[in-house]
Specification:
Blueprint (H helix, E strand, L loop, with lengths): L3 E12 L7 H4 L5 E3 L4 E17 L8 E15 L3 E16 L5 E16 L4 E11 L4 E2 L7 E3 L5 E13 L3 E14 L3 H5 L11 E18 L2 E12 L7 E12 L5 E6 L1
Antiparallel strand pairs: 1-3, 2-3, 3-4, 4-5, 5-6, 6-7, 7-10, 8-9, 10-11, 11-12, 12-13, 13-14, 14-15
């Protein structure tokens, strides 16, 4: 029996670095600091590609090609009495298996902006704006003829005001007793069906409730960096006991100068 297995994997990870001499060892993101204005900015990029080709492979399996990319941009300002943090996350991934159509494995757009003014040593009066959506149409595979989502269907816009607790540089907790959450469904077919909680034939759903958001970002051990964000929202007007949960986790592990391993969950 002829057996041939060809498996090739290529990962290209790039971290934009500037003015940081020990960046690789400490897994720091690209950062530029202006000591006069206290601005910091940077970006993290990760691109992955893999291919599996099987011919007369007795163990069975499927040929496949996949690729994914993640980009994380941040811009922050820190003054004596105030702080402004901005973060943009973009992610997209695809998979092609045998004769099946191309499927998405990741699709994400998220922009978060938080402004705070110091109240005490660790507490800030804060306001937050968060926007989430996706790039392209989504389907319930293997059915790829009826879309279940698309750009701005859904789209989520959340505005929160409250108190933000900051512990050192790696943990923050925002407590907002009054929060506005708007859901957009700007697709005629999906809005007519009442998708994502909107009233049928309506394109917007507004909710008012309470919001809790925690962020953790730290090098938990040598060459292992963890970023986690947990958001909890309760609609005061309808079923407040039903909590909307959004939890993102990113682990970045550096093996050497050329190889990194990332684990990303939502």
């Amino acid at each position: 029996m002829r057996n041939l297995l060809f498996f090739s994997t290529f990962f290209l990870s790039g971290v934009l670095m500037s003015q940081i001499t020990d960046a690789e060892a400490k897994l720091k993101n690209a950062t530029k600091t202006d000591t006069i204005t206290s601005w910091k900015k940077g970006a993290l990029f990760n691109i992955g590609f893999s291919q599996v080709t099987l011919t007369n492979w007795a163990a069975g399996g499927n040929n496949s090609v996949s690729g994914n990319g993640v980009a994380n941009f941040h811009l922050t300002y820190k003054g004596k009495k105030c702080a402004w943090e901005n973060n943009l996350v973009l992610g997209y991934g695809i998979l092609k298996q045998n004769q099946e159509s191309i499927q998405k494995t990741d699709d994400n757009i998220e922009l978060t902006s938080t402004y705070g003014r110091k109240a005490t040593e660790n507490w800030f009066y804060s306001g937050l704006i968060n926007f989430k959506s996706q790039f392209t149409d989504g389907f319930n595979y293997p059915n790829d003829s009826v879309k279940i989502s698309t750009f701005l269907a859904p789209g989520y816009l959340l505005g929160a005001g409250g108190m933000n607790y900051k512990f050192k540089d790696f943990f923050t907790l925002l407590v907002s007793p009054i929060t506005s959450k708007t859901t957009f469904v700007l697709d005629e077919t999906l809005s007519k069906s009442g998708a994502f909680g909107v009233t049928p034939n309506k394109i917007i759903r507004n909710e008012v409730g309470g919001y809790l958001r925690g962020n953790f970002k730290k090098e938990i051990m040598k060459n292992v960096k963890m970023t986690s964000s947990l958001g909890l929202f309760s609609n005061f007007m309808k079923n407040p006991e039903n909590i909307d949960v959004n939890w993102d986790l990113l682990l970045l592990m550096k093996v050497n100068k050329f190889i990194t391993v990332t684990i990303n969950t939502n």
